[in-house]
Automatic annotation (TrEMBL), chain A:
It comes from Anoxybacteroides tepidamans. SUPFAM superfamilies: MetI-like. PROSITE patterns: ABC_TM1. GO terms for biological process: amino acid transport. InterPro entries: AA_ABC_transptr_permease_3TM (IPR010065), ArtM/GltK/GlnP/TcyL/YhdX-like (IPR043429), MetI-like (IPR000515), MetI-like_sf (IPR035906). This is Polar amino acid transport system permease protein.
From TrEMBL, chain B:
Keywords: ATP-binding, Nucleotide-binding, Transport. One of its GO terms (molecular function) is ATP binding. CDD domains: ABC_HisP_GlnQ. The keyword ATP-binding applies. This is Polar amino acid transport system ATP-binding protein. Residues 2-236 form the ABC transporter domain. It comes from Anoxybacteroides tepidamans. It holds the Pfam family ABC_tran. The keyword Nucleotide-binding applies.
């Protein structure tokens, strides 16, 4: 079997373009997802059942249905309500953000609830308000514990962004598929794309290990 | 200082406090003893509203805890608490543990808070530990820091919830010594403990609780040498 490096060479500029879009889409989505997730996580921890309920169902829906289905719903159902010609890239960002918000919400909730109850009690017994106790005592400890699952979620999100291919968002996988379609070759484009994803995710986990080491000795 | 009337509290179907009346005077050291599950810790935790209660009334330093106009945070500024499991803040140095509340709650300047903290650390014999993190402290040291942290707010009352129960036996003494010193200085204290020696030596009054009631109370010699109730006698015969 011959391996046609010329295909990779020809598509290199497109792969680079796709890679940049994948990175930008992933970063925007994890940021939006985190902000949304924070709100949803707080909502889910509310003592009032009626406030909790919609947030719980948000998380249930987005964690319990396939991202692929959500993406199709967003691109062909939701976005046309607002735009006459929906951009696939925008749809990709929206669906990834909504999806990761559900996971971040759970990471956030688990992080806060993993802190020993005694910490909140000690803070309150010293006269701190609930907000002060959260800010100075609970969150600093919880955030540290949230780093690993959060980085993990980011890695998953980067890989999930490849689903953008089904709505023709021109991210990395889209160009892999394009090369495959043009030359009817499987190994060259898909191995190259895999390799690029691998570099992305591996460097992220290296960064994660570095952060963990840095913050664990406190 | 503290007046408790007909205090009742349930967890779900289980009623743990079935009507407690107690009056604690200024500068008094009251020791609460009793078997586990008797409600003594819950009683103590009601005094600064870490546990909400269902019925009755608690008045501390003129504040009625159930009054809607009472700011519970203000009351807690005057009521220090020491926990069985220390509950030091692990992400902060010993010094920061002690200065945090005075700075954030009492709005003291950091310098003043640090000065007070160092004085308190000296008092509990740990001035050399100011800049270490809690996880490098022994249990006895951690509990002494926790006492200093509570004292830093300048409370009028100190509550101790089994402060030596999580300690190795050889460290109990150093914590009790600090508490004894505090009692001698005239601090009003409510102490839930299993340390009968401490109760006898330091307590002005001993309260024996069982099954959600105060069964018997009196001076240490009343309770330890002349218990009147069968339940007090049987409890003391097991622990003494």
């Amino acid at each position: 079997m011959d391996f046609r490096f010329d295909i990779i060479q020809e598509y290199a500029p497109f792969f680079l373009q796709g890679l940049l879009l994948t990175i930008v889409v992933s970063i925007i989505s994890i940021i939006v997802g985190s902000i949304l997730g924070l709100v949803i996580g707080l909502g889910k921890m509310s003592k009032k059942r009626l406030i909790r309920l919609p947030f719980e169902w948000y998380v249930n829906f987005f964690r319990g249905t396939p991202l692929l289905v959500q993406m199709l719903l967003v691109h062909f159902g939701l976005m046309p309500l607002f735009f006459s010609q929906p951009s696939a890239t925008v749809s990709l960002v929206v669906s990834l953000s909504l999806n990761s918000a559900a996971y971040v919400a759970e990471i956030f909730r688990a992080g806060i609830q993993s802190i020993d109850k005694g910490q909140m009690e000690a803070a309150r017994s010293l006269g701190m308000t609930h907000a002060q106790a959260m800010r100075y005592i609970i969150l600093p400890q919880a955030l540290k514990r949230m780093i690993p699952p959060f980085a993990n979620e980011f890695i998953v999100l980067i890989k999930d962004s490849s689903l953008g291919v089904v709505i023709a968002a021109p991210e990395l996988m889209y160009w892999g598929k394009a090369a495959q379609g043009q030359y009817y070759r499987v190994w060259e484009p898909y191995l190259t794309v895999s390799f690029i994803y691998l570099i992305l995710t591996l460097s992220l986990s290296k960064l994660l290990h570095y952060l963990e080491r840095k913050y664990s000795n406190q | 200082m503290i007046k408790v009337t007909n205090l009742k509290k349930s967890f779900g179907d289980l009623q743990v406090l079935k009507g407690i009346d107690a009056h604690i005077k200024e500068r008094e050291v009251v020791v609460v003893i009793g078997p586990s599950g008797s409600g003594k810790s819950t009683f103590l935790r009601c005094l600064n509203l870490l546990e909400d209660f269902d019925e009755g009334e608690i008045i501390i330093d003129g504040f009625n805890l159930k009054d809607k106009n009472t700011d519970i945070n203000k009351v807690r500024e005057e009521v220090g608490m020491v926990f069985q499991r220390f509950n030091l803040f692990p992400h902060m140095t010993v010094l920061d543990n002690i200065t945090l509340a005075p700075v954030k709650v009492r709005k003291w300047p950091l310098e003043k808070a640090k000065e007070t903290a160092m004085e308190l650390l000296k008092k509990v014999g740990l001035q050399d530990k100011a800049n270490v993190y809690p996880d490098s402290l022994s249990g006895g040291q951690a509990q002494r820091v926790a006492i200093a942290r509570a004292l830093a707010m300048g409370p009028k009352v100190m509550l101790f919830d089994e402060p030596t129960s999580a300690l190795d036996p050889e460290m109990v003494g150093e914590v009790l010594a600090v508490m004894k010193q505090l009692a001698n200085e005239g601090m009003t204290m409510v102490v839930v403990t299993h340390e009968m020696g401490f109760a006898r030596e330091v307590g002005d009054r001993v309260i024996f609780m069982d099954g959600g009631y105060i069964v018997e109370e009196g001076t240490p010699s009343d309770i330890f040498d002349n218990p009147k109730h069968e339940r007090t006698k049987s409890f003391l015969s097991k622990v003494l």
